[in-house]
Amino acid sequence: MTPIFFAYFALVSIVAGVLTVALRNPVHCGIALLALLGHIAGLFVLLHAEFLAVVQIIIYAGAILILYLFVLMLLNLKTEERYFHHRHAWYMVGVGALTVELLLVLLASRYSGMKGPATTKAVEAVGNSTAIGILMFSDYLLPFEIVGVFLLGAIVGAIVLAKTPGRGDLAREDR
Amino acid sequence: MVPIGAYVAVSAILFVTGLVGVLVRRNFIIVLMCVEIMLNGANLNLVAFAHHLDSLAGQIMSLFVIAIAAGEAAVGLAIIIVVFRGKIATNVDQINLLKW
What we know:
Chain A is mainly α. Chain A has helices spanning 2-22, 26-46, 50-75, 91-108, 120-126, 128-136, 141-162, 165-174. Helices cover 76% and strands 0% of the residues of chain B.
């Protein structure tokens, strides 16, 4: 059963990715990106990363993509005649050849490696989110805090950048 | 049981798709969306190897990547709004003030 689901999720996510690049209307690109994110979440479930699948749906599809669509509609972009750089279109031949080469190498590789302690059975005994939470707040505490500071900086930076220039002066006058 | 090579192949295809999009699209917002495709390809790779090697480190890195992607989207879209307010252009080849 798993290979059927894998084939479905992989095919649809690749098609949705190509559509995101190729579609003309930016809103349609956003919808294609939504399909891509949902099917990647399905692949995460197949890989026993249930917590990550839920995070993918909530944060990527629920927050980031909504932000994109919101800005798209705020700016009211028109669909353009020239939406590609046609001058660089012949690069695609090289990119396609390199991708085929890469896929042949990737599919032929053996992927050995040192196994860790977190087997599927061991993780399922405590639950996926519990295992991730314990690891994140012990071994990965410093990266976690750094990401928190980064997000704070991103929030402040986004607000400072997108602020309307005159509004701060008005607020100062009101005070 | 699906071999890990299949997952890695899917993630490589997604990454290349996003890279092509970044290179060929003219609209800045679509370029950012293509960056999201590339980040998703990288995430899939991390999670596939986390499953293959029985380690949770890949899943945690993947969570960090999602957080970074959220920050990147917020700042990138704020920059787009600023540029759009100044001059009516969201095409990357018309935004060339920082070009030497």
